[in-house]
Design a protein that fits this description.
The complex is a heterodimer. Chain A has helices at 52-60, 98-102, 104-108, 113-126, 142-155, 172-188, 200-206, 240-261, and strands at 8-21, 24-37, 41-45, 67-72, 83-86, 160-164, 192-196, 209-213, 220-225. Chain A is α/β, with parallel strands linked by helices. Chain A has a domain at 93-157. Chain B contains ten helices and no strands. In chain B, helix 2 (49-61) crosses helix 10 (228-256) and helix 7 (159-167) runs antiparallel to helix 8 (172-210). Chain B has one domain: MetI-like (MetI-like fold, Orthogonal Bundle). Classes of the chains: A alpha/beta, B mainly alpha. At the A-B interface, strand 5 and helix 3 of A face helix 7 and helix 8 of B.
Chain lengths: 265, 265
């Protein structure tokens, strides 16, 4: 752990975040240290409201940390941040059509209209939403909207994909299909991913590494490697060694959740 | 959910429902005609609808009505442009920037509740009894509804959309054109409608007092000479005009904001 491995893409050191409120200082993140390697899929689980989203937004550059450093080992060529954020409630602009939403990231990067439309169209064709290119988000189902949200983030070709509980608002069946699709997309186009979820099975199925965070103020309680081969599918959670891992994570997480609920441990 | 799948429930019933008000209206007119001709009501107060129609067609053929109509519409649209356009820009600024809001809010709070028509005498002292004073009062009336609607339109845009734009590296100018403008458009259109109706109301009110031409002036002359038919003609023209302006604006809104239609499904 003394020197970062050469393939690291993100190095967070001593990230603290606190807010000044009318009752005093509210500490949200305390000393978060985390390194993400190239093509590594990291899942973060933790009690709800603990500060996972704050951490993700700090990495995305939307929130400035109170102290600490977020360093990208290979900055993007155009000086833009090498991240793309997928929002919990899809974050599609209701006033843009599917294709315009998907092309939004490219538009902000300064890609010309013709090229970005073409690339956006190719991508939506690939995920099977071609016939909805000219529809507005209100005309899509919740699952389709989030697929469009994911397409938008993939299309800017970020080094690091930041996903904030992207599937949590979907029903269980849709979520399963979306998990598989996400794995498929990622296996074709491997990026580093930081994926926040409250679903431990999802974390184990998707991640190379699962980070368990404590309740507020959040810090990293434990990191667990998931030594499974890729490509994976949903069945991995049924393997005995994996159910043991899931149980182990739940034991740690339960402890943290109980603290936030003020249950006697 | 998918466009093109909307079904039309009970089409025949729909037609009948729409015809009932028209039927009631015609019956009421017939009763009025009968009562007026039979002398059950004073034909000075309630001249027969047929007489009113004759007066209406005569005022069209003499060009009298068109002249009044044109004066009123000129005042309304001039006032709407002079008052509404600055209000639009100021409202966008106030909605977006807390600094501008704190700076301007006290003045808005102080001037907004004053009925604008009450300022007319003061304005006339400054600018004389004429067209200019009228347009100034009309534009003041249009200014505030536009300002307040636009401001709250920007304020109610979900913070997520700002974060999405920022996370893809959008600079303030882009955030303005891609988030602030389209996001506030529904409320801007509401503001336009409120401003238009207010401009119309105040234009008529000022015409009652000082104008030689305009629908308000037409009403006033009719009252002074006790030509009740003409009074009814001008009232009918005013209400038809109000209805058509609102209808036109409604269609324009639907055209400009296709992403917001049938949201309630």
């Amino acid at each position: 752990m003394s020197t970062p491995p050469p393939q690291a893409v993100l190095d967070c050191r001593g990230v603290w975040k606190s807010y000044v409120t009318h009752t005093g200082r509210l500490s949200v993140l305390e000393d978060v240290n985390c390194r993400v390697c190239r093509e590594e899929f990291i899942c973060i689980v933790g009690p709800s409201g603990c500060g996972k989203t704050t951490f993700l937004k700090i990495v995305a550059g939307l929130i400035r940390p109170t102290s600490g450093e977020v360093r990208f080992c290979e900055p993007a060529a155009n000086g833009k941040r090498p991240t793309a954020l997928v929002f919990q409630d899809h974050g599609l602009f209701p006033w843009l059509t599917v294709i315009e939403n998907v092309a939004f990231g490219l538009e902000m990067m300064g890609v010309g209209k013709r090229e970005r439309s073409e690339r956006a169209r190719d991508f939506i064709e690939k995920i099977g939403l071609g016939s909805f290119a000219r529809n507005y988000p209100y005309e899509l189902s919740a699952g389709m909207r989030q697929r469009v949200g994911i397409a938008r983030s993939f299309l800017t070709d970020p080094k690091i994909l930041l996903m904030d509980e992207p599937l949590s608002s979907l029903d269980a069946q849709t979520r399963r299909l979306m998990q598989e699709e996400l794995l498929r997309l990622w296996q074709n186009d491997r990026k580093s991913v930081i994926y926040i979820t409250h679903d431990i099975e999802e974390a184990v199925m998707l991640g190379d590494r699962v980070i368990v965070m404590t309740g507020r103020p959040a810090t990293i309680r434990k990191e667990i490697s998931i030594p499974l081969d890729r490509p994976r599918d949903l069945s991995v959670c049924k393997r005995p060694d994996m159910t043991a891992v899931i149980h182990h994570i739940w034991e740690i997480l339960k402890d943290e959740v109980q603290k936030t609920l003020w249950f006697p441990a | 959910m998918v466009s093109g799948m909307k079904k039309e429930p009970g089409f025949g019933l729909h037609i009948v429902e729409k015809c009932i008000p028209a039927f009631v209206f015609i019956v009421a007119l017939l009763c009025w005609e009968l009562a007026s001709r039979a002398g059950w009501v004073s034909s000075l107060f309630f001249p027969a609808p047929s007489k009113i129609f004759v007066t209406f067609f005569r005022s069209i053929t003499t060009g009298n009505l068109a002249g009044h109509l044109l004066s009123t519409l000129t005042r309304v649209f001039l006032g709407l442009a002079v008052g509404g356009v600055p209000a639009l820009f100021l409202g966008l600024g106030m909605g977006w920037s807390r600094h501008i809001r704190t700076l301007i809010d006290p003045f808005v709070a102080a001037i907004h509740p004053v009925p604008k028509i009450a300022i007319l005498p003061l304005i006339m002292i400054f600018f004389g009894i004429g067209e200019l004073s009228q347009v100034i009062v009309v534009s003041l009336g249009a200014f505030f509804p536009m300002l307040i609607s636009t401001m709250s339109g920007v304020q109610q845009i979900s913070p997520t959309y700002f974060e999405v734009a920022e996370s893809y590296g959008a600079k303030p100018a882009r955030i303005f054109s891609k988030v602030v403008l389209p996001g506030s458009l529904p409320m801007v259109m509401t503001g336009t409608r409120l401003a238009l109706n207010m401009a119309f109301l105040i234009a008529i009110a000022t015409e009652l007092v000082i104008a030689k031409k305009g629908l308000g002036a037409m009403i006033w002359f009719a009252w002074q000479t006790l030509r009740t038919e003409e009074l009814y003609v001008s009232l009918a023209v005013i209400s038809v005009l109000g209805i058509s302006l609102n209808f036109f604006l409604q269609k324009l809104t639907e055209h400009l904001i296709p992403w917001r239609q049938e949201r309630e499904g």
